[in-house]
Amino acid sequence: MTETKEKASVNATESSITGRMSTFDHEQLVFCQDKETGLRSIIAIHNTVLGPAVGGTRMWAYANEEEALTDVLRLSRGMTYKNALAGLNIGGGKAVIIGDARKDKSEALMRRFGKFVNSVGGKYITAEDVGISTRDMEYVRLETKNVVGLPEYLGGSGDPSPVTAFGVYMGMKASNKEVTGSDSLSGKKVLVQGVGHVGEYLVEHLVKENAEVTIADIYDDRVKAVVSKFGVKAVPVNEVYDQEMDIYSPCALGATVNDDTLNKLKCTIICGAANNQLKDEKVHGVEVLKRGILYAPDYLVNAGGIINCYWEIVGYNRQAALSQAEGIYETALQIFRKSSTENIPTYLAANQMAEARIASIGKIKLSY
Ligand code: NAD
């Protein structure tokens, strides 16, 4: 090979697939297709330094393959950070299936997908994510053992939401400790946005501790159920950001911390279960710091779900999962300390701590 050709192949451009993989050091991409079932899927293994790559499968009607590839690269990398920061001995991965989950899914398609998961030989372990149900995972399980988050009747750990909610609650207590010097949430005004699986369990913890809880949800039946069970206050969804509150807890959607909401939000802490709460972490992560709002990194405080799955891999024990989720309290305090000592946003402190753990065990490209 001539020198020029050699250079060209080594310095793959960022638009080539290996070039894009090298941007954040993805280890392996598996493109899967099956004509008969219409399956088109990508499995992304980002980093296996700490252990097999674990992360859910998302089924989404991506506009094109490029959009699916971008998503799976981003999500799998996110799992590496999340798993590392939670102290788990697993790496980061994710899979996407291109298609409309309401129209394009079938038993055969999920089983074909399961065969592809199996083909990577345990290097990737899958779970449920957006567009994928427990039933779908049962089909995947017929083809591979490398699935977690299964229902209890299949030997799995069942619904992870109680563990996720407990972790968020621990993160909230640590946040309050950082801001007020006390971790008691008694009398604190907490607004929980979204009272689905996680939100409802979180409200239960908060009410037990005598916090002043307000809830909002787009579904009236959810609001009514939680109000009547716990006697909390409810507000319409479009009035959430106008409320007086100490703690804003997003437990529904991502990107709710943005230019518009930050101009309205009157809180000292943001701590909730939703993924990707900062619309743009580099912009809004800095903005919350400037405004004196403590942001508890979402991927730390909502790690209870993956902690629960992790224990399914090593031998399920609910108590062990809960006690590891309790550790979110200490990790959050370490992040807050690093953030204030180095005057950096909390999201960045969290990312650096995750990278440092992986770097201490193996190799990761430091990106910050
Ligand atoms: P869920 O679907 O059970 O609950 C979400 C709730 O939010 C629903 O009741 C929905 O009606 C409500 N909602 C949707 N849009 C809203 C809006 N604009 N305003 C107010 N409410 C709205 O989901 P979940 O399992 O409780 O998860 C909540 C969030 O936490 C999600 O972002 C999820 O990705 C994340 N998360 C969940 C887990 C878990 O263990 N379930 C783990 C990690 C992260």
Largest sheet: 6 strands, mixed
Poorly predicted spans: 1-10
Question: Treating each run of at least 4 consecutive H or I residues as one helix, how many helices?
Answer: 15
CATH hierarchy class name of the largest domain: Alpha Beta
| CATH topology assignment of the largest domain | Rossmann fold
What are the secondary-structure elements, in order, as H or E? HHEEEEHEHEHHEHEHEEHEHEHHHHH
Structural class designation: alpha/beta
Distance between the termini: 35 Å
Number of strands: 12
Helix content: 40-55%
Oligomer classification: single chain
DSSP strand content: 5-15%
Architecture of the largest domain, according to CATH?
3-Layer(aba) Sandwich
Roughly how many Å is the radius of gyration?
A: 21 Å
The distinct ligands, each listed once, are:
nicotinamide-adenine-dinucleotide
Count of structural domains: 2
What's the average pLDDT? 93
Q: Tell the overall outline.
A: globular
CATH superfamily of the largest domain: NAD(P)-binding Rossmann-like Domain
Task: Report what the structure shows.
The chain is α/β, with parallel strands linked by helices and 368 residues long. It has two domains: 27-70 and 92-156, 3-Layer(aba) Sandwich (Rossmann fold); 161-356, Rossmann fold, CATH 3.40.50. 46% of the residues lie in helices and 14% in strands. It is built from 15 helices and twelve strands. Strands 1, 2, 3, 4, 5 and 6 form a six-stranded mixed β-sheet that branches. It binds nicotinamide-adenine-dinucleotide. Nicotinamide-adenine-dinucleotide is lined by residues 160-161, 164, 193-199, 216-219, 222, 237, 251-253, 273-275, 302, 305.
